[in-house]
């Protein structure tokens, strides 16, 4: 299936958390790092669209002006998180808040600093959406990781529990029995770009 043939899921929005300041990367905003010739934020947003998410909301924080100026994010809804320094929880709250009142019945949450996760994993998790009570997570060798699909019935609880850098972790731990795991270890790698050593995983110019 080509990206243009991917089924659309207008009930599920892509929610890309791209506000991180890269503190352990010397203050380089993660959204503006390059991999395979494109910015990480561009790659992730495109993969969410190609997987079938509609619309895609991108939460910006550190380097937001640079992202707006440099990144090709046409068709995406850009959400500013002025509290990005508080951690991932604030971005998750801002992103879910931007979906309240929309037609979305679910949100597929992804992180900008996981370039090893792409369209195939997004599409698998998205394919498990069954309604507002859905709670779905990618798994790698049976271990839960991103992306995570949050049905709208869970948003208020996630927002209440999302603090610091925990994101939805506390809420998912409390509701672990409800989570449907979708194995993605054969199509993706859930590594993070967190430290200078991790930059070696990036191919800025696209050379393999």
TrEMBL record:
Q: Which UniProt keywords apply?
A: Transferase
An example Gene Ontology molecular-function term: nucleotidyltransferase activity
- Residue ranges occupied by any MobA-like NTP transferase domain in the UniProt entry: 14-176
The record, for Pfam families, names: NTP_transf_3
The organism's superkingdom is given as Bacteria
- CDD domains cross-referenced by the UniProt entry: GT_2_like_f
What protein am I looking at?
A: Nucleotidyltransferase family protein
The organism of origin for this protein? Streptomyces bauhiniae
């Amino acid at each position: 299936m080509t990206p243009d043939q991917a089924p659309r899921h207008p009930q599920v929005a892509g929610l890309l958390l791209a506000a991180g300041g890269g503190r352990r990367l010397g203050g380089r905003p993660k959204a503006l790092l390059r991999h395979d010739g494109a910015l990480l934020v561009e790659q992730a947003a495109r993969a969410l669209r190609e997987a079938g998410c509609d619309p895609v909301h991108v939460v910006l924080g550190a380097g937001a002006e640079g992202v707006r100026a440099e990144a090709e994010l046409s068709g995406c809804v850009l959400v500013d998180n002025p509290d990005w320094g508080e951690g991932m929880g604030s971005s998750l709250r801002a992103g879910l808040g931007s979906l309240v009142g929309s037609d979305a019945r679910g949100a597929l949450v992804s992180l900008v600093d996981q370039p090893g996760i792409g369209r195939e994993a997004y599409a698998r998790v998205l394919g498990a959406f069954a309604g507002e009570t859905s709670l779905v997570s990618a798994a790698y060798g049976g271990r839960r990781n991103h992306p995570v699909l949050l049905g709208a019935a869970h948003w208020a609880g996630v927002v209440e529990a999302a603090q610091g850098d925990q994101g939805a972790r506390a809420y998912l731990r409390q509701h672990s029995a409800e989570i449907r795991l979708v194995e993605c270890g054969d199509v993706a790698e859930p590594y993070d770009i967190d430290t200078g050593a991790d930059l070696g995983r990036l191919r800025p110019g696209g050379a393999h």
